[in-house]
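Posting for a labmate who doesn't have an account.
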Amino acid sequence: MEIIQPTLLLNKEKAILNIRKMDHKAKENNVRFRPHFKTHQSAEIGDWFRAEGVRSITVSSFDMAAYFASHGWEDITVAFPVNIREIRKINQLAREVRLGLLVESPETVEFLSRHLGHPVSIWIKIDVGYHRTGIEWNDFDAIIHLAQNITKSSKMHLSGLLTHAGHTYHAKSPAEIETIYRDSVIMLKEVRFKLQAAGFTSIQISVGDTPGCSIAENFGEVDEIRPGNFVFYDVMQMNLRSCSPQEIAVAMICPVVTKHASRNEIIIYGGAVHLSKENIIDHEGKQLFGLVCFYDEQQGWNRPLPGTFVKALSQEHGIIQASREIFDRIQTGDLLAILPVHSCLTANLMRKYMTTGGELIRTMAAEV
């Protein structure tokens, strides 16, 4: 397998182990496992989930829903607030699959009630503290009013409450992540209680962030989980201690193009168009855009190198800060493995994977 330019390398065995681990945890907790496919965006990788018995999935767009529907998935939730301009796509999908939609505004519900051509499941988006989107969890009047409007339509079935506790990504410890998860479930249970008191039955609870689903051992009284990033994990999840370095299943393989001895800096062919500009501040206070490993032709990569990290990115260039010992071991023309800060964005940019076994796997974007 010859690598001559930035290549997103995928360790299939690690990814399948990550899938099996999360699937096993869902089964132990007796909850539906509806993984988010926006991370990998690949029909072939989707088949790895199907091999474990997964039948329900989450996606982030109607185009993504159509792509996976064309590959045999029949139970799909689009976990992004409905864009009413896509009503034609919505009706096309609703005719073909069991489609779940996410709403939070009365205007959207009114529009859907007038324009839906086929039955859909409706989830009310609840904000449990992330403050990105959703109805505030304690705005019970607004939630009940929305539920009433949903059930007026014969085309809309109210499935329940859906949230993404994205503020777990800002947590400082696994204990804080678990606290956020527990608090989120408590809030959603309170909302469900209010809806039940107003006459609504069979209200389900759906939660979805990878840190919470990775850290929590007991999912509590929820009906489904929707993590996505866990299939690959990344440096961000490692920094949160949601995973170990050994569980990260993708790495960007980048050629070394030059070295600057006066600064102990190594320049790689691999920049923001490959890795994205996503960065974190690690536990030592360093800003980093990726961790560096030696490339291994058999295994793909090994453990992150001490004192060595991607310190800056421009469009095509990556600048690695290295210890003197590591700097001296690396030569121009070598290949280095960069563990991405955010694997979802990296996969979206690259559009294809090369497995450690030499197999090419394309994403939906590469098939358009």
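Reply:
Got it, the structure tokens are right above this. The mean pLDDT is 97.
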